[in-house]
């Protein structure tokens, strides 16, 4: 296996202390900017306020209307992507290098001088309600609502990050502006630049645009660690005329900075992290019950990381599929893995890293992940080293410590009459109505 | 600041377009040749990262199918992961993933494409497996039965259990009725259920032959070594019979076709409007792509501004050209806002098209469309797999590999007048299919 290392990058500091990281790539005249702030849905004072505030950044500034901004962005052939997560938010853009400075200055104006005009606020709020109504028809989202509602019951992590129809209707412009003031003045900011840019020039323009932000203290969100689950629980969301059940089954797990994380990553890979994983092999390749079954580690909520399995299965296979997944979860907790399965999944994880350091966008994403986890970019390489040195015996301890089938949440969306009797075997089979 | 940067600033300041073209595109370099058995080979070296990709592009898609056996090409894509005479069932994926690679495939109307991306030290292995699958696939009853179940669930997930999920199946059936594009690659479960083992075997023998494929190897490799592997692994595969390529005969449409579908899974009414368009490579296709960007790409687009922003009758208003080897479509999608009348969404979409037909587009819109085309063209040339897919497409579709480097010139040749002309020519009522999806409650209200 070739040696894979994170590419060279340079680190800079603006006059107000904002960190800037530049990852050069001269293969084409394309550049990328991500302006990131540690400010997200955990700071919501009402469900969806941070998301709505972020969506309004490009809807007018002190000197430009929403139409002016949209016209200028489109004229450069680019898009400003706004991502509002649980604990951080970002505005990013990929553009031809020749538009680096104008795009950056426009982005800065949007982020620093958003105007939140009454008419734009109302329009965007209505749009958010419409978007939310549209999303509610997605069977996967409905299963996710049932799952998250049960996994984090009563905790801020269970609230609707994009808002509910009711919360969005009740939102006032002043609340949105208050969130913006927090975002602008009290977030921890950092900026990632990738691609073919001249470093000194990039830093100079960034300092000119973002160096004016006042230094401030980072405001913590209202996310204390949610309580660990004790025992299994089940829930479902009903879907009219569904022909499949969308299963979502999972447990809480450790944060990526935990010393055992490399082992958990490997276990998840074996369980459902790739095509040859245990559950995909059984449910798809042996049984033909699904187009695909997989699992992933969700680290979006840093104090509530999870291993989550999902699969859309034929309704008639619902009970058996859940039984298979739970049985495999038990096996994962109790049976020592074989050398060959360990080798295969280790190589796959290493290859996955190799395949994800190719484009500037991928590099920015890896860098962002590391930064927000509070580790340096060589974190990924250190995880790979740990994986390469893992033995079945070492993994056994991690299985016993961190795989807990007795605490699973079993959730699904689909036909109520099919799901409820099945899910009663695993808990109260609470019906969640996505709002 | 360069002249072009000044121009960009001018765009922002004045909100007007200024003619700027990509000057600094770095063309993809490649070598190409054809093996004696007919396999077309393209090699593209890029050693910036120690990874590589292979693409094996077979010139067979759903339009090659017998209308009584639809779904064969896609079903075969699944069977190709089963096993070969030398690789046991389940072993194909095992070999690639054990090498740290990821393999996948897709089937469209015109092609079936198998691709792999992996650390470069696994390249030899990848080529050996792909060459095995080219002629030594094991097509047996166990594999067929299992994949029948998988494909049925794929169909449910993509079509039956998703809001508006059947739109493209209905659209292509109505828009291209009576032609090889009149069914989608997922095909009919019934056709797959009744097909015999011999029929699958015959399909394989007809189309999975070296003289019906393009192989691209891209990324970090030694060219002499790779040429040697290609000669040994693929060169030994026997040439197949010459392929008789079906010509798509497209019966004329006799006026607009409208259909309303009751969709219990949808929360909001949805509208899917299809027009007959142009095939790949047709000069009008570039003008149409630019026009659809002006109509509905980005928040400054006409439909977004009118339907989503100003009138607030739609959650989504988009349009895109769908170009195939022998036909094309232009699809408009509108999802109504809660409480909005879907008929108004439809009328406003037509109003925006009519406005282009009557008045053309502005200079700023025209420049924006060129800039979008330029951005897509340059920023799309990143990644060994993406480059390999583009090279294979260029060769298989146009028999012109350098299309990957010259495509942008086709956009530069488009004039403002062309956009108005193609709007007039292709947005014709008699060539139109209108599908309206109504949630149950909404339908009852009407």
Summarize the structure in short.
The complex is a heterodimer of chains A (435) and B (446). Chain A has 435 residues and is of the alpha+beta class.
Q: Main beta sheet of chain A, described?
A: 6 strands, mixed
Strand count, sense and barrel status of the largest sheet of chain B are: 6 strands, mixed
Order of helices and strands of chain A: EEEHHEEHHHHHEHEEHHEEHHHHHEHE
Extract low-pLDDT stretches of chain A.
none
User: Please, what is the average pLDDT of chain B?
Assistant: 90
Q: Could you characterize the architecture of this molecule?
A:
The complex is a heterodimer of chains A (435) and B (446). With 435 residues, chain A is α+β, with helices and mostly antiparallel strands. Chain A folds into two domains: 10-210, Cytochrome Bc1 Complex, Chain A, domain 1, CATH 3.30.830; 233-431, Metalloenzyme, LuxS/M16 peptidase-like (Cytochrome Bc1 Complex, Chain A, domain 1, 2-Layer Sandwich). Chain A has 16 helices and twelve strands. In chain A, the strands form two sheets. In chain A, strands 1-2-6-3-5-4 form a six-stranded mixed beta sheet, sandwiched between helices. Chain B has 446 residues and is an alpha+beta fold. Chain B folds into two domains: 29-233, Cytochrome Bc1 Complex, Chain A, domain 1; 257-445, Cytochrome Bc1 Complex, Chain A, domain 1 (2-Layer Sandwich). Helices cover 45% and strands 17% of the residues of chain B. Chain B contains 17 helices and eleven strands. In chain B, a hairpin with a 5-residue loop joins strand 1 and strand 2 (40-45). The radius of gyration of chain B is 24 Å and the shape is globular. The model of chain B is unreliable at 1-21 and 442-446 (pLDDT under 50). At the A-B interface, helix 2, strand 5, helix 3, helix 4 and helix 10 of A face helix 1, helix 3, strand 5, helix 5 and helix 11 of B.
């Amino acid at each position: 296996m070739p040696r894979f290392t994170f590419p060279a990058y340079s680190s800079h500091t603006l006059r107000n202390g904002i960190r800037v990281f530049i990852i050069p790539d001269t293969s084409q005249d394309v550049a990328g900017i991500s302006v990131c702030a540690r400010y997200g849905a955990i700071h919501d004072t009402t469900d969806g306020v941070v998301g709505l505030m972020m969506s309004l950044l490009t809807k007018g500034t002190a000197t430009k209307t929403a139409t002016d901004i949209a016209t200028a962005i489109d004229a450069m052939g680019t898009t400003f992507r706004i991502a509002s997560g649980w604990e951080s938010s970002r505005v990013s853009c990929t553009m031809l290098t020749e538009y680096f400075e104008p795009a950056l200055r426009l982005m800065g104006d949007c982020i620093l001088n958003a105007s939140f005009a009454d008419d734009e606020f109302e329009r965007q709020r209505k749009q958010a309600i419409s978007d939310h109504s549209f999303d509610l028809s997605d069977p996967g989202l409905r299963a996710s609502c049932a799952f998250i509602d049960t996994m984090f019951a009563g905790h801020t992590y269970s609230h609707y990050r994009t808002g509910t129809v009711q919360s969005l209707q009740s939102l006032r412009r002043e609340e949105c502006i208050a969130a913006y003031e927090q975002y602008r003045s009290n977030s921890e900011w950092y900026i990632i630049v990738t691609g073919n840019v001249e470093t000194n020039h990039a830093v100079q323009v960034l300092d000119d645009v973002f160096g004016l932000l006042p230094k401030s203290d980072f405001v913590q969100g209202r996310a204390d660690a949610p309580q660990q689950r004790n025992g299994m629980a089940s829930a479902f969301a009903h879907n009219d005329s569904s022909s499949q059940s969308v299963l979502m089954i999972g447990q809480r797990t450790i944060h990526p900075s935990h010393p055992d994380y490399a082992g958990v990553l490997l276990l998840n890979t074996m369980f459902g992290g790739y095509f040859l994983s245990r559950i995909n092999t059984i449910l798809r390749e042996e049984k033909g019950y699904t187009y695909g079954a997989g699992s992933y580690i969700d680290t979006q909520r840093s104090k509530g990381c999870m291993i989550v399995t999902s699969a859309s299965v034929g309704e008639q296979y619902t009970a058996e599929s859940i039984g298979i997944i739970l049985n495999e979860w038990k096996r994962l907790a109790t049976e020592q893995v074989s050398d060959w399965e360990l080798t295969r999944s280790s190589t796959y994880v290493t290859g996955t890293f190799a395949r994800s350091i190719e484009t500037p966008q991928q590099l920015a994403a890896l860098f962002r992940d590391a930064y927000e986890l509070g580790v340096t970019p060589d974190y990924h390489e250190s995880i790979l080293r740990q994986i390469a040195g893992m033995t079945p015996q070492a993994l056994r301890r991690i299985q016993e410590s961190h795989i807990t089938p007795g605490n699973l949440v079993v959730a699904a969306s689909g036909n109520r009459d099919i799901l409820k009797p099945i899910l009663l075997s695993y808990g109260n089979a609470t019906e969640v109505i996505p709002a | 600041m360069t002249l072009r940067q000044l121009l960009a600033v001018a765009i922002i300041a004045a909100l007007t377009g200024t003619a700027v073209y990509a000057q600094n595109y770095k063309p993809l370099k490649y070598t190409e040749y054809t093996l004696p058995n007919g396999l077309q080979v393209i090699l593209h070296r890029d050693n910036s990262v120690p990874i590589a990709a292979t693409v094996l592009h077979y010139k067979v898609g759903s339009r090659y199918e017998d209308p009584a056996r639809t779904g064969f090409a896609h079903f075969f894509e699944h069977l190709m992961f089963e096993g070969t005479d030398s690789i046991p069932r389940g072993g194909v994926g095992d070999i690639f993933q054990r090498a740290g690679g990821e393999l996948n495939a897709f089937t469209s109307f015109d092609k079936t494409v198998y691709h792999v991306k992996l650390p470069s030290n696994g390249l030899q292995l990848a080529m050996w497996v792909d060459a095995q699958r080219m002629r030594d696939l094991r097509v047996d009853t166990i594999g067929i039965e299992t994949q029948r179940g998988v494909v049925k669930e794929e169909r449910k997930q993509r079509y039956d259990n998703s809001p508006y999920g059947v739109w493209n199946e209905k659209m292509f059936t109505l828009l291209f009725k009576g032609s090889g594009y009149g069914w989608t690659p997922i095909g009919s479960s019934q056709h797959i259920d009744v097909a015999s083992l011999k029929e699958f075997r015959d399909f394989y023998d007809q189309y999975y032959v070296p003289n019906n494929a393009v192989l691209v190897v891209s990324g970090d490799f030694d060219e002499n070594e790779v040429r040697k592997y290609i000669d040994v692994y693929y060169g030994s595969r026997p040439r197949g019979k010459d392929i008789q390529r079906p010509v798509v005969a497209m019966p004329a449409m006799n006026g607009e076709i409208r259909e309303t579908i009751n969709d219990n899974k949808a929360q909001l009414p949805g509208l899917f409007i299809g027009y007959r368009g142009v095939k790949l490579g047709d000069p009008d296709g570039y003008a149409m792509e630019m026009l659809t960007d002006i109509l509905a790409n980005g928040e400054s687009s006409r439909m977004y501004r009118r339907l989503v922003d100003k009138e607030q009758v739609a959650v989504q208003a988009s349009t895109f050209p769908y170009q195939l080897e022998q036909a094309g479509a232009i699809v408009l999608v509108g999802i109504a806002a809660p409480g909005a009348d879907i008929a108004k969404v439809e009328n406003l979409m037509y109003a925006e098209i009519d406005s282009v037909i009557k008045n053309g587009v502005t200079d700023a819109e025209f420049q924006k469309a060129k800039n979008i085309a330029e951005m897509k063209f340059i920023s799309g040339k990143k990644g060994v797999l993406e480059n390999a897919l583009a090279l294979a497409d260029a060769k298989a579709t146009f028999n012109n590999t350098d299309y990957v480097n010259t495509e942008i010139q086709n956009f530069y040749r488009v004039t403002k007048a062309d956009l108005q002309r193609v709007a007039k020519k292709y947005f014709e009522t008699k060539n139109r299919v209108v599908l309206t999806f109504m949630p149950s409650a909404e339908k009852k209200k009407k």
